[in-house]
Amino acid sequence: MNGKRIGEIDYLKCVCILLMIAFHLVFFSEKYPLAKQWVYTFHMPVFLILSGYLMQIEKRPSEFLRAMAWIFVPYMVMETGYVAMSEVLPVRDKVDCLSVGLMLEKLFLHPMGPYWYLHTYLLCGLIYYGVFHWAEKMRLVSRLVVLGTGYAVLADACQLVSLPNALYFLAGVALRRSGMTFTSFFCPSVWALIPLVWLSADMANLNRFTLGGVAIVYLVASVLLSLYTVIPAGIRRVSDYVGRHTLVLLVFSPVFTMLSKGLVPLFMFDETGFCFLFVAMILTVTGSFGIAWCIDRVGVSPYFWGKKQMLQPFHPK
């Protein structure tokens, strides 16, 4: 892909990250449990497929490890902070007694909150790099089998990742290595809406770890891609920008989804929860970008992201 941005992929990343934020807002998600279950069927699988597809392993070991280190640093900072705050804030995965051992266990073995994705990304990426360079003379299918076996060991024997999540990452790797473009496999089609509705009507399929769930992942991506060319150009530019900065939202959004709980009493008048959703989403997105902007301005980005500036300029036209 030679470093060139793919608008359709950034758009998919934007949709998925915004859905992740929306359904991490407890006040809203508890009002729509079926919608939450449906969204959870596909939004992180799409992210994992894209992660495997986009990961670049055509680097020297030192360069690749440096890139992984600059994913680990924000992960380490925010996961440690999340665990610490979980002792005092009313979160579902509440910590009763902090200790160094607990911090290390959550950081390296069983992360809390949405940061499990970065943990999975790091582990799957490191094994991917190791297998494809160690077994570079093997046929592609053989390397994929070895990689899948490595993920099975990581999941079942070591219990460090979820095997289905690792397999979605593997699917992205297989797609990239096959030489197919993302949009030629996930063919944009509005007609995919018909089987999507049919499958989604059966609760048994609302599980990303079932065959029906896998089909929903494919069909949702196909439907969303079919909409990319018809959405207004201004919205497309915004979605492309957000899609280029999903790491910022993934890292900082938990701060604001927690803070948003303080807004709940102000929106009790709205039984639908959509007024709360609108305000909380704006707070979370702008707040996350605001933190990234501040980090850029004060010169901390080289020590947090490993780059001089994280936020790229936004071009409205």
TrEMBL record:
Stretches assigned to the Acyltransferase domain: 7-293
GO molecular function: acyltransferase activity
Coiled-coil residue windows: none
Highest taxon of source: Bacteria
Pfam families the record matches: Acyl_transf_3
The keyword Acyltransferase is assigned to this record: yes
Keywords, ordered alphabetically: Acyltransferase, Membrane, Transferase, Transmembrane, Transmembrane helix
Transmembrane segments: 12-29, 35-55, 67-85, 115-132, 144-167, 179-199, 211-235, 247-267, 274-295
Keyword flag Transferase: yes
Stated name of the protein: Acyltransferase
Species of the source: Phocaeicola intestinalis
